[in-house]
Design goal:
By secondary structure, this protein is of the alpha/beta class. It is built from 14 helices and twelve strands. A hairpin with a 5-residue loop joins β10 and β11. The two termini are about 20 Å apart.
Length: about 375
């Protein structure tokens, strides 16, 4: 079964809608589009599917509610507007969902809800319980209180994290851009839409430069990062145009809309998913080709295979493992700090005692604390 047809069988679906989809160009709420979005989601719920909505727009709604002409630049002002706008946005969603016979509930998350394993599990259990009760969770980042250190950063990443947490079958990201193009379609009329991306290569990452519209905060790069999380978690992800009529139904019916990212073959277990996507990335480790092959066969990461290290990380931090050409091949919890890794990279196990102070670990990253990303 190809990826498009697989969507027809999706039982649990996460839909992310961005600020640019929810607002007109003048900054006012697009109630027509919001109502149609809710109608589509309600219809999916009526079919017996489980639906989760990840929404942006709290600050934008706050700007509208306060009668401002533009977003303020100050962090405190944006947080205050998020507090005003979140209630307004939720009221609108709740009103429309109620009209279509659905019960919705608000969930506000921060990075801490995924970084701390206990909170990660609590978030998972709460969302699972809401779905079991037939509630449509409406999720946003808690912008009113989150500081930069606690922010997930963008709702593309948030939606993929949520899809991973709840073991979703599909993630649909509605955007002001149809999907991933061979070039910037706003600047190059010869740009071609890439209908399917089976593997996120460095070339694909380079295509996803720049930000999207002036109203949103996430460009195509954040969507590619979201695709890494989703596909590694066994979730089929689609980037689709948010201004298209009945776009969600069409995507679920298997229509060739936007760009689809098929999932990896195996789902990550809950703890592995948390290791890969819940914890903050503190640095990068580059390994040689022999080490890459060993990791893919299920081995731990040994110091002998490390060729370079970047970042100021401590023992117990989560780092990315990169191939010689910059491809991300794994993530894991490192047993040594960055200074020690710099000393022992390339060393055989028998040589470690001459470079390590304190307890010696044969593995830089044990396989139980390692998640393959390829």
């Amino acid at each position: 079964m190809n990826a498009r047809n697989h969507l027809k069988q999706a039982k649990r679906i996460v839909v992310k809608v961005g600020t640019s989809t929810l607002l007109y160009d003048n900054g006012k709420l697009n109630l027509y589009r919001i109502e149609h979005l809710v109608r589509e989601l309600s219809d999916l719920a009526s079919q017996g599917r489980e639906v989760i909505l990840v929404t942006s727009g709290a600050v934008g709604a706050g700007v509208v509610r306060m009668g401002l002409k533009k977003r303020p630049s100050g962090v405190e002002e944006r947080q205050a507007l998020a507090a005003v706008g979140q209630g307004m946005l939720m009221h609108i969603y709740d009103k429309f969902f109620s009209e279509y016979g659905q019960v919705s509930g608000q969930v506000l998350l921060t990075k801490e809800n995924s970084v701390q394993h206990k909170q990660y599990i609590n978030s998972r259990n709460t969302l699972q319980a809401m779905l079991k009760l037939g509630v449509v969770p409406i999720i946003n980042e808690n912008d009113a209180v989150a500081i930069d250190e606690l922010k997930i950063g963008d709702n593309d990443t948030l939606s993929a994290t949520v899809a991973s947490i709840v073991d979703a079958d599909a993630l649909i990201i509605l955007s002001d851009i149809d999907g991933v193009y061979t070039a910037n379609p706003q600047k190059d009329k010869n740009a071609i839409l890439i209908k399917e991306i089976k593997e996120i290569t460095p070339e694909i990452e380079r295509l996803a430069g720049g930000a999207g519209s002036s109203m949103g905060t996430g460009g195509m790069f954040t969507k590619i990062e979201a695709a890494k999380i989703a596909t590694a978690s066994g979730v089929t992800m689609v980037i689709a145009p948010g201004d298209m009529t009945d776009v969600i139904r069409s995507v679920i019916d298997g229509a060739e809309i936007g760009t689809i990212f098929p999932p990896k073959e195996a789902h990550l277990k809950a703890r592995k998913s948390w290791l890969a996507f819940g914890k903050r990335i503190a640095g990068d480790i580059t390994v040689d080709e022999g080490c890459e092959a060993a990791l893919k066969s299920g081995s731990s990461l040994l110091p002998a295979g490390i060729t370079a290290s970047e970042g100021d990380y401590s023992a117990g931090s989560t780092v990315r493992v990169l191939a010689y050409d910059g491809r991300e091949i794994a993530r894991g919890i490192i047993n040594y700090d960055c200074d020690t890794i710099d000393r022992i990279k390339g060393c055989k196990t028998r040589e470690l005692s001459g470079f390590v102070e304190g307890k010696i670990h044969e593995e830089a990253i044990h396989r139980d604390n390692l998640v393959l990303m390829v």
